């Protein structure tokens, strides 16, 4: 009998451990992951003392605020910018990281800041924006004697990007290329002017030759007679 009791106890111990371990794991899965600590800024009622703390929940933040600011329990947390009370865990989870809070004990009330222009910029974040197009210009040099290179990169909706690399030559090479193009332009212009002048000279020579030929040719007699006189009959001319 004793042997049977001891054997049953030995078999029941691992079973109970497995059941307790599975129960604890089930509770953890149902409860979900523990919230991670987030940073907050705390101050007392007259803003003379400021502290920064990390807390995962409202209860832990209340405890740390009471300890850091040396306040008597109970305390209440309000937003430093407008005095909104933070009383529930659901509202606490909606606060952004770095939110400025004020801890008030019994008999203390929230007051607006007396300093003109006082703003709490970390309590609110600007709305998320979507970039439609982004153009960047990168000016760099590959050699000290170079004038510089320019890289232009355009990105559309953060997905499609295209770039163009404009590389400039050195100062001497650039001047040499500019003189070469200037010389080529002058030569082309000279050829065009020379061809035009030759064509105009040929045209003038042809016009002068036509005038000289007209002057050398004899004038016909009919052109010298007056056109108004009647012609003589044929018989009278025979007599």
UniProtKB/TrEMBL annotation:
Entry protein name: CIDEC protein
Domain CIDE-N residue range list: 36-112
Gene name, Swiss-Prot/TrEMBL: Cidec
Superkingdom of origin: Eukaryota
UniProt keyword list: Apoptosis
InterPro entries the UniProt entry points to: CIDE-N_dom
Single Gene Ontology BP annotation: regulation of apoptotic process
UniProt keyword annotation of Hydrolase present: no
This protein's record includes keyword Transcription: no
Species per Swiss-Prot/TrEMBL record: Eulacestoma nigropectus
